[in-house]
Amino acid sequence: MVVVTLPVRSACADLGSRFPRVTVEPDAIFVRDGPVVTSAGVTAGIDLALALVEEDHGPDLVRAVAKHMVVFLQRPGGQSQFSVRAAVPTTRHPALRRLLDAIAAEPAAEHTLASMAAQVTVSERHLTRLFRREIGLTPGRYVERIRVEAAQVLLESTADGVAAIARRCGLGSDETMRRTFLKVLGTTPTAYRQRFRTSRSPMIPEETS
Predict the structure, then answer these.
(1) 61-76 burial by CB neighbour count: b if 16+ within 10 A, else e?
(2) What is the C-alpha separation between 105 and 90, in angstroms, rounded?
(3) What's residue 128's pLDDT?
């Protein structure tokens, strides 16, 4: 039996019916079954490569590699995945594309509307129009989702408290992070951590958020 993962749910049932000895994991970006490791697609292949680097060389090196590649360090494989940067439409505007990559690489940096407009060398109003047309989100909503995703990673993979994670991800305080999680994910940071932390995660102290 070999476990595989597919990015398109509509193909999962078909694959499973054609090959009954294969276990299909529709929600994982990559899975490992003994010596066989499969990824869901091109972007998931990057996640798989980063996971292998982390396995062999540890979290510090994989964070450095991810930053050098200007990619977001996603959650470990084996869980339902969603990458904001990978999910938004590809823009043909090179300056906007660089801005999106910069936000994903450093979620906690100052990403005000004014600073982002300056990076793209357009007015704030024009930047908002660009985001709506090219990305389908406002600049503020894109930054918010990137920061929430960064916080999700830290909740799953570290023992840091909610307040510390909020600061590291640009979400300000633990209360701001809590309100943002409820708005975006419909759950609190603590409830999210309890649900999605993995067996490889460090021991998590009890929290009140």
Answers:
(1) ebeebbeeeebbbbbb
(2) 17
(3) 96
